[in-house]
Amino acid sequence: AQSVTQPDIHITVSEGASLELRCNYSYGATPYLFWYVQSPGQGLQLLLKYFSGDTLVQGIKGFEAEFKRSQSSFNLRKPSVHWSDAAEYFCAVGASGTYKYIFGTGTRLKVLA
Amino acid sequence: DAMVIQNPRYQVTQFGKPVTLSCSQTLNHNVMYWYQQKSSQAPKLLFHYYDKDFNNEADTPDNFQSRRPNTSFCFLDIRSPGLGDAAMYLCATSRLRTDGCGDFGPGTRLTVT
Question: Which residues on chain B are in Cβ contact (under 8 Å) with A105?
Fold first, then answer.
C-alpha cells in the first residue's frame, strides 16, 4: 500500500528566506505526487503535481518540487518566502490507475516578519 | 467562475441526529470525493464516485453514506453522528487520474453537540 510521510510537523522561517518542505513516499511503481496548501479554515489548493517527465516541476505561487526516485522523495521548495505563505502544506500520493489519493500529516509553516 | 461549492459552511447537529452535507461543482468533473479532516490531521478519504460508480474505503464507517444524483451534486449523509464525527468535511473533484484532487471546496465544519 502506498504511504506518504512528512517528517517536519512545524517549520519556522524568516520572510525572504528559502524554504524546503520534505516529503517521502512509499510505493512500488512511479506514483503520482502532489503538494497542496491549506489556509486556516479553508479547503486545499493544489500547488503542483508530478506524474512523469521532467523531475523538477514548477507550481503556482513560486513553488517548485523535485522528484527523486532514488530517495523516494518529493520535496517542496521556494527561494524566498512571503508572509502570506504561512499555512499548512500537505504532500499526497496517488497510485497509478486509481483515483485514490493519500495525504501526509502536513507541515505547518510559520513565517517571521 | 467554475468551482466546487459546499453547503453549509458550518453545521451543528445533535448527537444521533442525521445530517446531510452538500457539494456541488460546475467543473463537469467525472470524479467527486469526500474527505474527513479532524483537527491537525491529514484529510482522510471516505469515498469517491467515478460518474455513478461508488467507491467506498474499507475503513469508512457504515454511519457514513453518500449519494450522487447527477454529475454536479454529491451528498454526504451521516446517519447517527457521534462526538467523534466532529470534523471538517472536504469535497473535491477531478477529471483525470493525473489531476489528483485538483479542486477542493472550502469545506463544511461539523460540530456535534
Answer: 41-42
Q: Please, are residues B59 and B48 in contact by the beta-carbon 8 Å criterion?
A: no
CB contact under 8 A, B97 and A97: yes
- The pLDDT value recorded for residue B2 is 62
Through-space distance between the first and last CA atoms of chain B, rounded to whole angstroms:
36
Is the CB of B55 less than 8 angstroms away from the CB of A49? Answer: no
Q: What pLDDT, in 10s, does the model give residues B41-66?
A: 889 999 999 999 999 999 999 999 99
DSSP SS3 for A95: coil
CA A38 – CA A57 distance, rounded (Å): 20
Judged on CB neighbours under 10 Å (0-12, 13-18, 19+), B88 is: buried
Scan for cell 479553508, then name that residue: A42
Q: How far apart are CA B46 and CA B66, in angstroms?
A: 10
pLDDT digits (tens, 9 = 90+) for B62-100: 999 999 999 999 999 999 999 999 999 999 998 876 677
